[in-house]
Amino acid sequence: MTSITVNLPETAYEIVISPGCLSQLGSQMKKLNVGKKVLVVSNPEIFAVYGDTCLQSLKAAGFEVYHHLIPAGETYKTLQSLEQVYDTALKHHLERSSTLVALGGGVIGDMTGFAAATWLRGVNFVQVPTTLLAMVDASVGGKTGVNHPQGKNLIGAFYQPKLVLIDPNVLKTLPEREFRAGMAEVIKYGVIWDADLFGKLEQAEQIDSFAHIAPELLETILIRSTQAKADVVSQDEKEAGLRAILNYGHTIGHAVESLTHYEQFVHGEAVAIGMVAAGKIATQMGLWTEEEADRQDRLIKKTGLPTTIPAKLDVDAILETLQSDKKVKSGKVRFILPTQIGKVEISDRVTTEIINEVILALR
Question: Does the keyword Lipoprotein belong to this entry (predicted)?
Fold first, then answer.
């Protein structure tokens, strides 16, 4: 069992990584000294496979357990879905000492966290991620929220979990497409923070599915990615500065997701496209070399992720969507741009002309 501590000014919590630990959810939560009532939020597909294990573990530890299911997909990450979670919380009389458990991927984690942040002005929250993307990224750091029709995650709050419980065994049932999407975030950590992790991914023969990754490499991926996220978040909980680097690839990535109505790409695929775009922008500005950009792009392609923007997307529409991005400051779009493998900078000096040129080159 590996335990990583996320140290924050007002609180600290553990990321527990251990094969088979899903059945220990109840005993792990008992250590938190929380109230008896627990509401598990999941989607029907995940709950059908792992719901019983979670519920039985919680009941065996003495918790009074209920559950609420939200249909799978980004299109359900809405205020309407959130209201239904509140209705279930009200129906079962959840109190401030109660706990909401997110059993699922990033969508479930974001929504459950926001529900926990806002129900009774804040109840306990536990993350049990079931996708690679959620394990290495979305479950750590306390970003919670839902989408607005005009943009991704525009409604939300910073709200930290009490515990993140990661069981690598659940990845066995993860569809290959979702596994590859999670690898986009892993590659992101290699580019922004951990050159050694990037090198290990380059050396691996195949990284495009769970079946092709050795257990030792998977363990390395989970530990180093979550440690990177913990390091960054511990230094900057609410994105006042450093934490913005975690948005590498997300600026144009979010625009692609939004303009394709969350139907053509899953999140990690859009991030992969965004990383290729950010790499080209950095090259145009002389921040890093063509060779390093090629290394990144080869790794993304090796993972089986997309690297081009759909031709049907209008350049002006992308530029307009960028202006509604959360990272806009004083009217300027801020990009995270690599300067070498393992290091990036935050820049608001990217001109519309460069963005135009890069988007056209990637279509």
Answer: no
152 annotated to a ligand binding site:
yes
Q: What is the pLDDT of residues 162-211, one digit of tens each?
A: 999 999 999 999 999 999 999 999 999 999 999 999 999 999 999 999 99
Co-location of 206 and 137 in the same domain: no
For residues 168 and 239, state if they share a domain: no
Catalytic residues: 121, 143, 185, 229, 239, 243, 247, 250, 254, 267
262 shares a domain with 164: no
pTM score: 0.92
**70 labeled part of a ligand binding site:** no
Residue 107 assigned as binding residue: yes
The total number of structural domains that make up the chain? 2
Segment 290-340, tens digit of pLDDT: 999 999 999 999 999 999 999 999 899 998 888 876 566 666 788 999 999
The span from the CA of 184 to the CA of 181, in Å, is: 5
For residues 142 and 153, is the Cβ–Cβ distance under 8 A?
no
